[in-house]
Design goal:
Two copies of one chain form a homodimer. Chain A has 418 residues and is an alpha/beta fold. Chain A is built from 13 helices and 18 strands. β12 of chain A pairs antiparallel with β12 of chain B, so a sheet runs across the interface.
Chain lengths: 418, 418
């Protein structure tokens, strides 16, 4: 496993190349596929074949391990990895989108050809969470795995909370600083986190990879005063990816959550990631570290490579995908949460009675509440923390409240986790 | 690797046995060595050879993997493991004392006989820290690894802080609740944490296992008002095991530390453990979880067993011990820390001047300080946070202060970490 091809030579590909060249000279990068072959680069590529025809790497007979750093769930990356697996090459990738969308097919192909797909770099950067789950914790009957899986979102939420700037301003700053992409859709809409939790869910519960079952909300609807209200009730706001298993069913979801401010991951700030694993032997294990960046991601690829070279050929999901479990997916409408509800109403006699009435008729019980003057003159903001209740019931009640005449904006809600 | 012998059938041995019997039926426990063969046990041992002659397991030709749960660094455990390795049996153990004291010899023997010594269970219970370091993070040039490695001490410090009871009272409570042993020496004196940090140091830095180089202080000298003063300056008190690497040297130490109350591990409370790894690629990785108990420890043994069965025969220290580095050990006297100093003095004119004079002459600069009435009438308590300074200089200054006539007790000091 000493001859390596690198497909895609951006931040991650170059970081990996630098680490290998400097610290792991027993490996040899023999071919690199780049977009623009004429571009001047700082790295020394002497004695390395450089091509712009990425698919060459899939069939180059000298390459034993293909490091895929192109990204994207379809197109070049998909075709490359598929062909490389058919040619019995081991794959190491940081591409969560590819695995979330085509993982089952690629894993089957890898198993059939007796090669690995390693993807420590795809989830939570350098934190060795894939290894920890696949080779250790998954034997303990994991009931829940969740975490802060997108550094961009965590950075944005942290800045909103600490600096009191609203979403669009913070996003612009983040883009300037390189913490957010120019097209931030995948990050801020929760899609990237959803790719990752879909993979973790599959690893943890032995279920096929099913991205379409993952419920997704991003951070773009979180408002500035949500942080203040959350804090008053003892919560922080984080975008979490959550996979939870019941007896014969499971759920996968990504959305903003209120989490208790004294929980382990409430203090995981800025671009850091965190993963929490709950199982029936150990209880709770928490892993925290940087979730992105060239160096950590490159380091995860190096670790996967050394693993391979040690002869540690893992089944990509820990168990054979042919033996994965058939569990029913739980629709989020059938899940239960405690909710944070924010309602802006005309400050008139009887409004709260009407809201209370709607909640009571839907059997939604109030845990805590608070009312204060709204920014808008003559209006009040009411914040309610409910007890646990099914999502579909809350949505019905919210619809009824939204239909009230004296409601200013649509009711905002954020689920409370844990 | 399906035939297993278990030596020692206490909490951990039984927890492991139950997990294997219930969830991992592809493995078979064929012999168990117990102290008292006549003792009634809740577990079903039908079809299993039970012996009181533990050494039989080392030579039983049917046993492929020996799970050592006897404990202790010498005597039966040492003899058993040594003989078993000579008979080419893989060892899985939770015995940090044995490895800290005889690890080099045993690791050499394992390498020679081409078998493994797995010890995920020996450090931080179920947290997969050995795997994370050995098979992932150690390739990133680790400069420091540290953590809360003893659950008993962490439980005691947490209770002292939260409940305002002093050390001996909390220890008694902890013993009643089973969180501390009847003979708590190994825990409260820091020896257990020292065993663990010695092993982590060896793993992280590729140095031979050298317990005798580990500086050790326990928690038994921590006083109740230390918590209050620490808090006023923004710190918590934790017993940390720390291994740190400089260019050609390294240090290993265990002692109470003041750590910033907003650091990741300041909130790791009660019997929880935490390990922090700093390297030059990822930066900081933090792992948190329960550090002891039958189930987590048993689960770590199960994970090691499955690893072995997958054919993942690791060198016990990740690299061959024959290639370990020769680094100089740094004496703690030559290390530098910021210090928390607590001085109880007669409340008289000129006392603070005299202390300041001693500090200034020794070039110890004061970062923060506070003086208040002592419990003892006519005395004052002075607390000083120093800037970073070499330990030997601080000890010299403390000696001079202790020699002052108006000092009530000897100066107390706690090192500040980070």
């Amino acid at each position: 496993m000493r001859n390596i091809g690198i497909a895609g030579f951006g931040t991650v590909g170059q970081a990996f190349f630098n680490q290998i060249s400097k610290n792991h000279k027993n490996f040899k990068v023999i071919q690199i596929a780049v977009k623009n072959i004429k571009k001047k680069r700082k790295v020394n590529l002497k004695n390395i074949k450089v091509t712009s025809k990425v698919q060459e790497l899939a069939t180059n007979p000298d390459i034993q391990v293909l490091v895929e750093c192109i990204g994207g769930s379809s197109g070049a990356a998909y075709k490359l990895v598929k062909t490389a697996l058919e040619n019995k090459k081991h794959i190491i990738t940081a591409n969560k989108a590819l695995l979330a969308m085509h993982g089952n097919e690629l894993v089957k192909l890898a198993e059939k050809n007796n090669v690995s797909i390693s993807y420590e770099a795809a989830i939570a950067g350098g934190i060795p969470v894939v290894k920890a789950v696949r080779e250790n914790l998954k034997y303990n009957n994991i009931s829940k795995i969740y975490g802060i899986l997108n550094g961009t979102c965590n950075y944005i939420l942290t800045k909103m909370e600490k600096e009191g700037k609203d979403f669009s301003l913070v996003l612009k700053d983040a883009q300037k600083l390189g913490f957010a992409e120019l097209d931030p859709t995948f990050d801020v809409k929760g899609i990237d986190a959803a790719h990752k939790i879909t993979l973790l869910s599959s690893l943890a519960f032995n279920v096929p990879i099913k991205f379409s079952s993952t419920y997704i909300e991003g951070v773009d609807k979180v408002e500035l005063d949500d942080f203040r209200f959350a804090k008053e009730f003892g919560y922080k706001i984080k975008l979490l990816g959550v996979a939870e298993r019941k007896k014969d069913s499971y759920e996968q979801r990504v959305h903003p959550c209120l989490i208790k401010e004294d929980s382990e991951i409430a203090k995981v700030e800025n671009e850091l990631n965190a993963v929490v694993i709950i199982d029936d032997m150990i209880g709770k294990t928490v892993l925290i570290g940087p979730g992105a960046g060239g160096k950590p991601t490159g380091a995860a690829i190096v670790a996967d490579l050394i693993d391979l070279n040690r002869g540690n050929i893992n089944l990509p999901l820990g168990n054979s995908i042919s033996q994965s479990k058939k569990l029913k997916n739980i629709d989020i409408l059938d899940s239960s949460f405690a909710y944070f509800l924010k309602i802006v109403v005309k400050d008139e006699v009887g409004v709260m009675r009407r809201i209370s009435d709607i909640l009571a008729r839907n059997k939604i019980s109030i845990d805590q509440q608070k009312q204060e003057h709204s920014n808008k003159r003559g209006y009040a903001t009411i914040v309610i923390i409910t007890h646990k209740i099914k999502e579909k019931i809350v949505l019905k009640a919210i619809k009824e409240i939204n239909n009230m005449k004296r409601i200013n904006n649509k009711v905002k809600f954020i689920r409370i986790e844990g």
